[in-house]
Amino acid sequence: MKTPTKIKKTLQVILVLFLFSSTSLFAQNNFGTIKGQLTDATNGDPLPFANVVLLQADSQLTGILSDFNGKYIFKNLKPGKYNVQVSFVGYNPSKIKGIVVTTNKITFASIKLSGAAVVLEEFVTVEDHETPLISKDEVSYSRAIVAQDLKSTASRSVNTTKKYRRHKYKESNKASSGYSIAPIEAKRDRFNTEGYAHNPENDFKNVKSTPLSTFSIDVDAASYSNMRRFINNGQNPPIDAVRTEEMINYFSYNYPQPKGEDPFSITTEMSDCPWNKKHKLIHVGIQGEKIDTDELPSSNLVFLLDVSGSMSSSNKLPLLKKSFGLLVNNLTEKDRVAIVVYAGAAGLVLPATPGNQREKIMNALNNLNAGGSTAGGAGIKLAYKIALENFIKEGNNRVILATDGDFNIGASSDGEMTRLIEKKRESGVFLTCLGFGMGNYKDSKMETLADQGNGNYAYIDNILEAKKVLVTEMGGTMHTIAKDVKIQVEFNPNKIASYKLIGYENRLLNDEDFNDDTKDAGELGSGHTVTALYEVAMKGSKDGVPSVDPLRYQENEMISNSGSNEILTVKFRYKKPQSKTSKLIVRHLKDKSTQLSKSSENFRFSAAVAEFGLLLRNSKHKSKASYQQVIELAKNSKGKDENGYRAEFIRLVEMSEMQASALLIEK
């Protein structure tokens, strides 16, 4: 048995060994840290949920969001020089270069942003009957609850008194501005209530039992910009938010302009499937006739704007005003603009006004404030009423709805809104839906409204996207050249065993709907392109071919033209904007496949986007799909890329890969 003296010495030895090992451990930690806070340059307010990107030699390493207090931190960095780049909706991007990181040290790099500055602060007392979800100890409570009276713009209030900070938002190049209740920090609600419709993926179809594939076109691009918002905010999007055809159709492709009396050209191509070497990929491209901006007909536009309390965030109403300002700057005296707003009720803010009276239109826009509940149904009815009162025959008559889709007063369910829009679409007034914001965004409702209202749908996540939708592609967004556009592909069972349509899951039609002119389908604008991809298993392949029992009461003999070299037939049906009778275009694709490396840039880039969609959806059909293959394919088919959209896509894939890798490490 050890004596107390020996025990004491033993403990001393253990303690020395522990201290030595700990010192060695710390000595091996050859990493440093960068941390800081993002604030408004004008008043020092913290900027929460801003995008903070860490770079080294202009190569992006990782990206995060600032926290509620505008703070950010990058840990475990190797010694060296780094750059930190920050962006936040409504503010000018900022970049700090040459931040030195040393071993076991914290380098502080706080950043001040300017641009959409808050120029006035004052405490006011408003009434609130709701219990805050955020404790009193936190910096601010983010609810904006003052309802706006549409006639007098006076505030109404009820129940319990609480203190809020009121900001006056000032447009940098506009003289007028308005007051609105807004949080000093644009905090997210504790509960994310974003809504996405269930979007199950297409499966392979056996050509012998299902030779026809019929669907409505989809030129919407909301899914892509919404996906970008998620990735820029440090996470991959929900599966149901990924509509692969909208990602593919976000980009323009170099298809030939149409010739002859039909305002469309159809291009077909077949090559190897990048993610499954056993299969082929078939590319169908449609090009709408491009009409010069100077030749576009006069526009009768009604801006239908959501000014309810949920629109108070900086990426909603303030961004909305800037976005519509871009559109207004491109209107002429032959155009007309009216503004209808809705919150607890709907009201006419600006009667139909010539498009060249920009100051008058912008004054009406800039004086709008957010507050109250959301009576979307009442707003839609009033907007269509104003549009019909100012209807321009042979012109572009359109309601442009801008909202987060969070309707909660009156007609608000998807079914009610659908029936409301269906009644309006026969009037000749088209509908464009522009989505804004996050946290309570209702994607499913926005898409439904656009689909049923003979219109299109875009998600505006930043001012550059607003420029793309409302300026660069204004002809396609605002001027419809064809409606109820449908595609039907017939596959030759002598050539193809099975096929899978990539995307268009919520645009599928019954085969008999193709010839039924009463069935609604998608709209195509001036200069728009539509791209569809099919992954196919050739005849003789056993991979990806679903089995079907022989039919007892049907003929099982092959088609009479079994010797044909055609692999498929594409049928395209459309109506002119004011017509009720459709026209038919038919094209055939011969059995001629090219190597992937020799296929067109159109083919390879669209295939890269489709493969990325498979990865984001974690598709059971992704086979050998990989981020690196997507990046390589996209880089080799980027082309001229004048606006940088394809380069941005490559950056998003790289960010998504890093985020996916980080999740695997955490698990």
Distance between the termini: 48 Å
Beta-strand content: 25-35%
**Widest sheet: strand ordering:** 20-19-18-21-22-23
Described by the principal axes of the CA atoms, the overall outline is: globular
Number of domains: 3
- How many helices? 13
Low-confidence segments: 18-28, 116-190
Percent of residues in helices comes to 10-25%
Evaluate the radius of gyration: 28 Å
CATH homologous superfamily caption of the largest domain: Gamma-adaptin ear (GAE) domain
> Mean pLDDT, as a whole number?
79
Query: Class by helix and strand content?
Result: alpha+beta
CATH topology of the largest domain: Immunoglobulin-like
Per-chain topology:
Elements: H1 4-27, E1 32-40, E2 51-56, E3 59-65, E4 71-77, E5 80-87, E6 94-101, E7 106-108, E8 111-113, E9 118-127, E10 147-148, E11 155-156, E12 161-169, E13 178-181, E14 205-206, E15 212-216, H2 222-232, H3 244-248, E16 264-272, E17 280-288, E18 299-306, H4 317-328, E19 336-342, E20 346-354, H5 358-366, H6 376-389, E21 396-403, H7 414-425, E22 430-435, H8 443-452, E23 455-459, H9 463-472, H10 474-478, E24 480-491, E25 496-501, E26 522-525, E27 529-538, E28 566-575, E29 583-590, H11 601-616, H12 627-635, H13 645-666
Parallel strand pairs: 1-7, 1-8, 18-19, 18-21, 21-22, 22-23
Antiparallel strand pairs: 1-4, 2-3, 2-5, 5-6, 9-12, 10-11, 12-13, 14-25, 15-24, 16-17, 17-27, 19-20, 24-26, 24-28, 25-27, 28-29
Helix pairs in contact: 4-5, 4-9, 6-7, 7-8, 11-12, 12-13
